[in-house]
Every structure is written in structure tokens, then in C-alpha cells.
# Entry
Amino acid sequence: GVRLNPPIEGVVTITDGCLAFLKDLAGRLPTLGFKETKVVVKGGGVFEVTVTVENTGYLPTAIGQGLVTRKAPPVLVKLGLGGAKLLAGNAINRVDSLPGSGGTREFRWLVFAPDDVKAISLDVSCAKAGTIHKDISLR
# Structure
């Protein structure tokens, strides 16, 4: 008295509904982006670099239960200095979660760059939100 498959005439309606749901869900996944980048020349080859990282997706990069169990992959922010030297701040930052719908986190560094170093780089990655890269011009 049990039917495992839906009636054949209902399959198209069911699959269309499932497809619409999955497309909507995929559009809500966390997505990393750069909201603002600012470089302030302090003089003597010293620069203050401020970057705001944003989650432009609807969902957070980690849900609450993942934070409680410490199983959620973090957002990693890595500063690539090349020939420059870091005076203040951490070259690698770990963020447990970026909230969805425009959640942001600001990072600030003080960098010494000789005249031949024109730019530094920034890589932001999260297993659930992807990887982004930015070259930051100092001069």
C-alpha cells in the first residue's frame, strides 16, 4: 500500500520546484568582497593600510552551531608584503564568522615599504565563501 515514486504526471512540477529552491539557495550563499581600501601616507616610507572585508551574501560564513563546536572554517585574511615590512598589525588574521547581508570586518596595518616596493597584496579566503585577491597600491 506504499508508493515510492510520485505519479509521473507530477514529476515535472516537483523537479521545477526543487530547481527553483536550489537556485534561490545558491544565490544566498556567503560571498566575500572588499568594501573599502584606504592607504594613508605617513612619511618616510611608512603607510597605514585599512581594508574592510564584506560578506555580500545573505547567509553568514559560519552558523552559530559551527561556532559553538569550533568546526566551522574561519575566514583567513593574509597580507602579502613582498619587500615591505610589517610594523603593526598581524600579517594573518582569522575571523570566526562574517555575518550575512553585508557584515563587515575592518583590518588595519602599518607598513614600511622601500621606494622600490609599489604595492602589497591581500588574500581573503573561506571554505564556504570562496577566495578573493587584491593588489593594494602604495604609491
